[in-house]
Design brief:
transport, about 280 residues, single chain, MetI-like fold, cell membrane, mainly alpha, membrane, transmembrane helix
Length: about 280
């Protein structure tokens, strides 16, 4: 009786694929992952300042920044400056996100809308928003309106572009399925198109948040009577580098917290995609 060796159930190639997946997969998330990178940067900054590798003339030490923060908080209106900057950024960002999303939907769901809207938006993309500030000053003056309009316009473009791409990139098989199920256009848009465009919208949100803070940093240099930019401008006049670093750190915390909030929201909202993709 001849004995036939049983062929291995797993080929070397399949085994290699499994190893590659283990190495390249997302792996397990650990608590505090969002703060690991900033913590490393802070540790390097502190170590460099303590050992003298980073001179105070180049970058103020972290402990001096903490002292300057306390001084600004107790002896000056740092809380008022923070709230003023947050109000400007939030107002401009809200207007930009709402306008960009509406324009993207109108352009992405209608060929007429795309012919009327997409061209001007693409022209705007080639013109830096910060270069329009002198024109905005002539239109709106040098007050709060100019600052909010600048932040709104600089936030609008990434929202529009990524949401529009998300709408245009939806798989055509979903449209065929909707026709098979005899879905109405409103139901198709509400249940298929908009959820399918949500990843693009959230990606645009991450860029919009960063862009809004970039605009905030610039516009607060123009005749601002309150805000982090106003504090930095005064510190520059008096040569207070530690206060300048305080303002930069606060801007960085604004951006990192906002980006983290968008990423966490995306994980919660897009959990259904992970389930479908396995």
């Amino acid at each position: 009786m001849t004995v036939i060796d049983k062929a291995p159930t797993t080929t070397p190639y399949e085994g290699d694929v499994r190893v590659v997946r283990r190495r390249l997969g997302p792996g397990r998330r650990f608590r505090g992952a969002f703060w690991a990178g900033p913590a490393v940067v802070l540790a390097i900054w502190a170590a460099g300042s303590a050992t003298g590798l980073i001179k105070p003339a180049i970058l103020t030490s972290p402990w001096d920044v903490v002292i300057a923060f306390g001084t600004q908080w107790t002896d000056h209106d740092l809380l008022g400056d923070i709230l003023s900057s947050l109000t400007r950024a939030a107002s401009g960002l809200a207007i930009g996100v709402l306008t960009g999303a509406v324009l993207a939907v109108l352009s992405g769901l209608s060929r007429v809308g795309e012919s009327l809207i997409d061209g001007p938006i693409q022209i705007k993309r080639s013109i830096p928003t910060l270069a329009l500030i002198p024109l905005f000053i002539a239109w709106f003056g040098i007050g709060q309106e100019m600052k909010i309009v600048t932040i709104a316009l600089i936030s609008l473009v990434p929202i529009y572009v990524h949401t529009h791409n998300g709408l245009r990139g939806i798989d055509g098989r979903y449209a065929e399925l909707a026709e098979t199920l005899d879905l109405r256009r409103g139901e198709f848009v509400r249940h298929v198109v908009l959820p399918g465009a949500l990843p693009g919208f959230l990606l645009g949100m991450r860029f919009a948040v960063t862009s809004s803070l970039l605009g905030l940093v610039v516009v607060e240099q123009y005749n601002a009577t309150a805000g982090i930019g106003h504090m930095i401008t005064l510190a520059e006049q008096y040569g207070q580098t530690d206060v300048i670093v305080v303002g930069l750190v606060i801007y960085g915390i604004f951006g990192y917290c906002a980006d983290t909030a968008v990423r966490l929201t995306g994980r919660k909202v897009l959990a259904w995609r992970q389930t479908l993709e396995g």
